[in-house]
Amino acid sequence: MTVDVTPLLSGRVEAFVLLFVRVTTLLAVAPIFGNRVVPVKVRILAGLALAVTLLPLVPPIPVMRAATAGGLALLVANEVLLGLLLGLVASVAFFGVLVAGQLIGLQMGFGIANVIDPSSESQVAVTAEFQHLLFLCVFLALNGHHVVIRALGATLDRIPLGSFALDGRTMEAAARGSAEVFSVALRVGAPVIGFLFVTTLGLGIIARTVPQMNVFVLGFPLQIAGGLVVLLLALPSFRVVFEELTSRMEGSLLAVVGVR
């Protein structure tokens, strides 16, 4: 006796494909998972494992919606767009930390001593890479990667597979989250940037009142040494800010998909 499994698989294959696309797209750009040092095979295997784990939580896709190749391609494109949107929103805090470190490095004079950031494969200041790695450690210590996975699971209830569509509310939430890059950069870099601003202002006043003094020779080591000291003293405040950024990440992700 043969058993016809077609009714059992009807709609489940399409659901698995769309779920796999959503998960892997998110992992491709999300913090930690989207790092360039993580091999592509590892990301695919992680996406496959998550898709298999989450598949029992999603209903089958109606056959009539994905019956044609064009219809399935449209659904896949929607899932790619949603995964990219969630991954970019999750990376906002990391972008802000990099911007803050870059500004600090340029004002301290480290602009000519750049290093290669493995996550973006671009040259960044030493201070930017230091703050990025520090935030990465705090993010992992607070299970920030679990936050991303929980937010992914929550989207399955709010946005069923194949039903995502950009609207004004989603775009507004995404734009608001993107604007947080500058807010995060200001909060993280405020101590050192403020000190360097005051130092530069003082050196400018000295240059005007005592023209015989070589302010450049005096200011260069003063900005580097003073900036490093303030950066060291500000490490406890960095920890507080990084913890807050990690705790707010889940709310930002859920706001994009309308989950309150």
Average residue-wise pLDDT: 77
What is the domain tally?
1
Q: Residue share in helices?
A: over 70%
The N- to C-terminal Cα distance equals 51 Å
Helix/strand/pairing category = mainly alpha
- Which term fits the overall shape? elongated
- Quickly count the helices: 10
Strand segment count: 2
Question: Which radius of gyration do the C-alpha atoms yield?
Answer: 24 Å
Unreliable residue runs: 1-9
Strand order of the largest sheet: 1-2
Taking the sheet with the most strands, its summary is: 2 strands, antiparallel
List the helices and strands and how they pair.
Layout: H1 6-9, H2 12-29, H3 40-54, H4 69-90, H5 92-108, E1 115-117, E2 122-124, H6 126-141, H7 144-158, H8 168-209, H9 215-233, H10 235-256
Antiparallel strand pairs: 1-2
Tell me about this structure.
There is one protein chain. The chain has 260 residues and is mainly alpha-helical. It has one domain (6-256). The chain is 73% helix and 2% strand. Strands 1-2 form a two-stranded antiparallel ribbon.
